[in-house]
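Problem 12. The chain below contains 190 residues. Write out its predicted structure in token notation.
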Amino acid sequence: MTALALEAAELSPAMAAYFAKCQDKIGYVPNVLIAYSHDMAKLEAFANFYNDLMLAPSGLTKLEREMIAVVVSAENRCWYCLVAHGAAVRQLSGDPALGEALALNYRQAKVTPKQRAMLDFALKVARASAEIEEADRNRLREAGFSERDIWDIAAVSSFFAMSNRMASATGMQPNPEYHAQARDPASAKK
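Solution.
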């Protein structure tokens, strides 16, 4: 899963149930979870924060949060996250080309003007967060994002900037299953 020889710890009951749920729901346990399984505190913190950011109620759709993950991961050239979240974009959008377009040059992707503003901000968070000004937040407000939405865009962007660095630094490998997921438009779920 990674280039580090870390021994997996015994899964806590909560994490054992979570791994079983992943296996049941998607057919495998994402390698990022296996990579964190050497330390239950870190695994639980990672899983809880990820699930809160990506699955909890938000003004951002699940697809939009995955789009942010891909654009930030493209900036950081994180192979694991590009492959994993590109698959999620394909599946959620029903568009097998959207993940690749976002990864290669999101400015060419078929997204709404509101999503473009979101992705522009996400990229700035990943690339030059110290340069963010009120004008950047105002562009999001003008595009129709609430104050909470702006927080969520920043939080998802920041989380993936950190995750990208961990995945790259540890040589984390994407699950082989991600590569083929939702390539056929008929098989993608909306």
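Discussion. The chain has two domains: 9-56, 60-190. Students who got a different answer should revisit the alignment rule from Section 12.3.
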